[in-house]
């Protein structure tokens, strides 16, 4: 970033100005920490003040670290009521568009970067592996600093993966599998450690659960996660309720984050109100802490400079925007992120699949008959009202939930394209497309159930015991 105000700041969007102020603030702190010459520090401070003035002139708002301009990210990172656009926060996803959330607009709104062909090709060159179909099909569509992860990897510097699960019920649904399927692929092709956070404390704070029930759900969800095929020698799964008291490094990082984020900031980022319990207000720091390697001294030998890559749904991005803002101020590297699209509810892409609505979800505990019934009865169709109209005009894959699900779980690209062409042309009817989905999901869920049966309580204990993994740091 140039240090001269010669560039036309008026041409920048509010979000671009916000990012410029943030970057310049980090530079000023770095210069001061490095005891740079006074004239260099003074010039950087002058530039920072100029940027802040431009930001206030453009937005009518004072710059606040970690709190993007309100015209772009309002309460709960949704949109203005006047705009009536997509509403996205860590707990709720809603859109009036039958096609689902407009992810291109969400990239602009959240200030992330699109995963383009060049980045996908670079991942393929770096790993020597064909990109996962989640990348090829845009299911993971957005990122923050993935280029830095690849820079480090190409220079023989390691990184680690961090993802998580909020255990709100005993049974997970198929939408929960996607992040773990992709994370497992990332771990295998890059051969790096993985930490998986089970936020049972969050669910206790937000749901009508006891701590005992939340922890029980965490252990049950861990069985489903382990059944995805993770290597116990390379993976640490932990419950917040359990691990927080066992790791001084973890708690120290929580406190550091808490000190550098104000109540006003978390209200602006997450939409908390004065009536929310203080546990909710402090929780974002707990989700931030696993982004730093020093939270896991047993894995990283106390090193603080190992960068983290977080695969997650883009609804979780607010937590990590906050984390990335705080990281330089506590002397730790910013985490990088890979964002996935939402897995739609059976009733349509206006909302994401939910564990609390049995008819919106296909659970990993469902029988073949239940899967068939749910798909046939509830899966929103992009077909026409009559067979005659469908044959003439064809179906709409953009809104058809069965086709959307197949983009996640049907790995054969050629077969998927054939189905798309046949459905769009009217050759393939809605019932026939649903039959393909049923025949895809039934063996997938049955195979998962068989693997889960092999996961014992002792295996869960092994995965959840703090320990050194099969890596040297």
From TrEMBL:
SMART domains linked: WHEP-TRS (SM00991)
Enzyme superclass (EC): ligase
CDD domains: TrpRS_core, WEPRS_RNA
Keyword ATP-binding: yes
Any one of the GO CC terms: cytoplasm
Transmembrane segments: none
Residue ranges of domain WHEP-TRS in the record: 13-69
Coiled-coil region list: none
EC number: 6.1.1.2
A Pfam family hit: tRNA-synt_1b
MF GO annotations: ATP binding; tryptophan-tRNA ligase activity
Keyword set, alphabetical order: Aminoacyl-tRNA synthetase, ATP-binding, Ligase, Nucleotide-binding, Phosphoprotein, Protein biosynthesis
GO biological process: tryptophanyl-tRNA aminoacylation
Family per similarity comment: Belongs to the class-I aminoacyl-tRNA synthetase family.
Protein name stated in the entry: Tryptophan--tRNA ligase, cytoplasmic
Organism: Trogon melanurus (Black-tailed trogon)
């Amino acid at each position: 970033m140039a240090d001269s105000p010669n560039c036309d700041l008026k041409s920048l969007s509010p979000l671009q100005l916000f990012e410029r102020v943030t970057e310049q603030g980090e530079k000023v702190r770095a210069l001061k920490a490095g005891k740079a010459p006074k004239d260099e520090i003074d010039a950087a401070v002058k530039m920072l003040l100029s940027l802040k003035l431009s930001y206030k002139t453009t937005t009518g708002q004072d710059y606040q670290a970690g709190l993007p301009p309100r015209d772009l990210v309002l309460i709960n990172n949704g949109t203005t009521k006047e705009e009536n656009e997509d509403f996205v926060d860590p707990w709720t996803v809603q859109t009036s568009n039958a096609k689902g959330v407009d992810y291109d607009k969400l990239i602009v709104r959240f200030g992330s970067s699109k995963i383009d062909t060049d980045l996908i090709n670079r991942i393929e060159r770096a790993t020597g592996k064909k990109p996962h179909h989640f990348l090829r099909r845009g299911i993971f569509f957005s990122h923050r600093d993935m280029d830095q992860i690849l820079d480090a990897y190409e220079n023989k510097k390691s990184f680690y993966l961090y993802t998580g699960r909020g255990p709100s019920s005993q049974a997970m649904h198929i939408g929960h599998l996607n992040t773990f399927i992709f994370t497992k692929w990332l771990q295998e092709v890059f051969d790096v450690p993985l930490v998986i956070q089970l936020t049972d404390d969050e669910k206790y704070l937000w749901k009508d659960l006891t701590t005992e029930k939340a922890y029980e759900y965490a252990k049950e969800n861990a069985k489903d996660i382990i059944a995805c095929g993770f290597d116990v020698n390379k993976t640490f799964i932990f419950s917040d309720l359990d691990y927080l008291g066992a790791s001084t490094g973890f708690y120290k990082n929580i406190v550091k984050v808490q000190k550098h984020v104000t109540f006003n900031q978390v209200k602006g980022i997450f939409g908390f109100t004065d009536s929310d319990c203080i546990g909710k207000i402090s929780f974002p720091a707990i989700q931030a802490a696993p982004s730093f390697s020093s939270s896991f001294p047993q894995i990283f030998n106390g090193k603080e400079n190992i960068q983290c890559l977080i695969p997650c749904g883009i609804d979780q991005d607010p937590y990590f925007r906050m984390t990335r803002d705080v990281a330089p101020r506590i002397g730790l590297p910013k985490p990088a992120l890979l964002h996935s699209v939402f897995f739609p509810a059976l009733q349509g892409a206006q909302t994401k699949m939910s564990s609390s609505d049995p008819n919106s979800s296909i659970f990993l505990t469902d029988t073949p008959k239940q899967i068939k019934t749910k798909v046939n009865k509830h899966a929103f169709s992009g077909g026409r009202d009559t067979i005659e109209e469908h044959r003439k005009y064809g179906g709409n894959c953009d809104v058809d939930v069965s086709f959307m699900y197949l983009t996640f779980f049907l790995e054969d690209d050629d077969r998927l394209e054939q189905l798309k062409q046949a459905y769009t042309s009217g050759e393939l009817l809605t019932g026939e497309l649903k039959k393909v989905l049923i025949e895809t999901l039934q063996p997938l869920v049955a195979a998962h159930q068989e693997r889960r049966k092999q996961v014992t309580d002792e295996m869960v204990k092994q995965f959840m015991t703090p320990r050194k993994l099969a890596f040297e740091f």
